[in-house]
Amino acid sequence: MIESLLAGGVTGLGLFLLVRALFPPRPGLAARLLRLDAATNGADAARPRMLTAEEELSAFRRRLGERLARFYASRGWEARSIKSDLALLGRSFEGFLATKVLLAAFGLLAFPFVAAWLVLTGWGVSLSVPLWSALIFSAVFFFLPDVQVRRDAAARRRDFRHAVGAFLDLVAMNLAGGRGVPEALMLSVSVGGGSDDAHWPMARIREALTNARIVGITPWQALGRLGDEINVDELRDLSAALGLVADDGAKVRSSLAARAATMRRRELAEIEGSAGERSQSMLVAQLLLCAGFVVFITFPAAMKMLGA
């Protein structure tokens, strides 16, 4: 049965590769636009972004990530959600894809280990159990980076929203001192002492505002672009509000103060909800502990009454 399945799978894979070789897929719209931009600008715009030096990826992993990124671009798969999470964490999309594939390949190594364990324990040499075990391990390892990135990005995005609330208060205070909107934005982000874990949100905002001068866009447009990049709605709303009322300092000041108060109330509600969930979890754990203790106490008497 297993040999027939393997033979059929190999035959089907060979036929699939033959059809793909005879009839190659047409490039998607995204790939065509990238080629058009490359021809217009005289540069290879379809080439994916190089990995940062801090990640210290190996040459093989870098090439694998670049090929996978080109494959995604040719198929028109944007993966906006995971890209925004990676941008917030300061990681590259190419390294993320390479990690997923390498972990999936590592999960396939469970096949010989499970087969050897079955042989040593005397359960017999059956290929079905090691094969399915390897496939399950490979699938789990393939999705592990997604779970980790989304969990870390959710925590970082929550910290970023907290920093945006403080940033709005600082901007409102600077506007109350008679400064203009661009000057108030730059002075508000100057309170961050560096790019460490305590000041990294302010450092990201300061970097976006500094790059706005080089690119030639307004500071609120730079905040909107940063909000789109890291998927923070508060920055997009702030960009839209500043773009509408940037010429009226009083309205800007009152609007920012109201937004900061709303964000603080939202954060307080989230903290209270999280505390309530943890209290319920502790209550359930205590009930389970009490139930186990009751079973431990009553088990000898129950067994004696049953005559065991």
TrEMBL record:
<keyword id="KW-1133">Transmembrane helix</keyword>
<feature type="transmembrane region" description="Helical">
    <location>
        <begin position="283"/>
        <end position="303"/>
    </location>
</feature>
<protein>
    <recommendedName>
        <fullName>Flp pilus assembly protein TadB</fullName>
    </recommendedName>
</protein>
<feature type="transmembrane region" description="Helical">
    <location>
        <begin position="129"/>
        <end position="147"/>
    </location>
</feature>
<keyword id="KW-0812">Transmembrane</keyword>
<feature type="transmembrane region" description="Helical">
    <location>
        <begin position="6"/>
        <end position="23"/>
    </location>
</feature>
<keyword id="KW-0472">Membrane</keyword>
<feature type="transmembrane region" description="Helical">
    <location>
        <begin position="101"/>
        <end position="123"/>
    </location>
</feature>
